[in-house]
Amino acid sequence: MAKEVVLKAQDIKRRKKIEKVALLLLLLLLVILTFAYFVLNVVYNEGHFTISMDKNTYLRSNLVMYESMNDRSSVIKLSAEKIAFMDNISIKWLPDNINKAEGGNHNGENYIAYTFYLENKGEENINYWYSVIIDDVIKNVDDAVRIMIFLDDEKTVYAKKNSVTNQPEKDTKPFANEKDGTIILEKREKMIPGKIDKVTIVIWLEGDDPECVNAILGGEMKMHMNIIEEHVEEKSV
Questions:
Q1: How many Å apart are CA 182 and CA 179, to the nearest integer?
Q2: Which helix (H) or strand (E) holds 23?
Q3: Strands 63-66 and 112-120: what pairing?
Q4: Three-class SS of residue 188?
Q5: DSSP classification of residue 108
Q6: pLDDT tens column, 68-125
Q7: Is-above-0.70 flag for pTM?
Q8: How distant, in Å, are the alpha carbons of 2, 96, 97, 98, 171 from that of 93?
Q9: Per-residue pLDDT reduced to its tens digit, 169-213
Q10: Domain boundaries defined on the chain
């Protein structure tokens, strides 16, 4: 009888130990899931397109960035509002005056549009680079994405090359193919003192793209733009 009592006590002690370990593992899993949710929430609710300027660019060259001509206080980060759902459209459906908005968000049905300003507050001509980098792509939606950038009234439409022909899509400039995910990389040269560049970015799914197919339904794409003073090219090894 005494031996049986000892065995039962050991069983109870072992069971309690297992329960404590299981509880600790459950709490650890909960912490991990909470952290993952927080990170994803921050990343994806910040907006699907952000514009950042290297703070050293302002310090060295006096290039400033702001969203509105009514408030020309310099900022180093801007965020475009995302839209809940984006169906495919044609570039022909976009408003003719889409680059005439005053500043900030001016999204429309099935497209994202955002306008901001860059100003040379220095006393010398300056150069700067602007790049667009992909952070994440789901279901290859980038195959049919179009990014249109107006620098003042000069318009350029960018798109991924056709995966079959490896040729640029009609009336587009092909995405760059940098190792860091950069798809657009342009240099703005000889910006004179006092000059204000108005930049408008438009993003949509081009329905006339042959790769705009049902397979990309439910896809998602997150990217950001950087404004920097100099671009250092990676050397191939």
A1: 7
A2: helix 2-45
A3: antiparallel
A4: strand
A5: B
A6: 999 999 999 999 998 888 899 999 999 999 999 999 999 999 999 999 999 999 999 9
A7: yes
A8: 87, 9, 12, 11, 16
A9: 999 999 998 778 999 999 999 999 999 999 999 999 999 998 988
A10: 1-45, 48-228
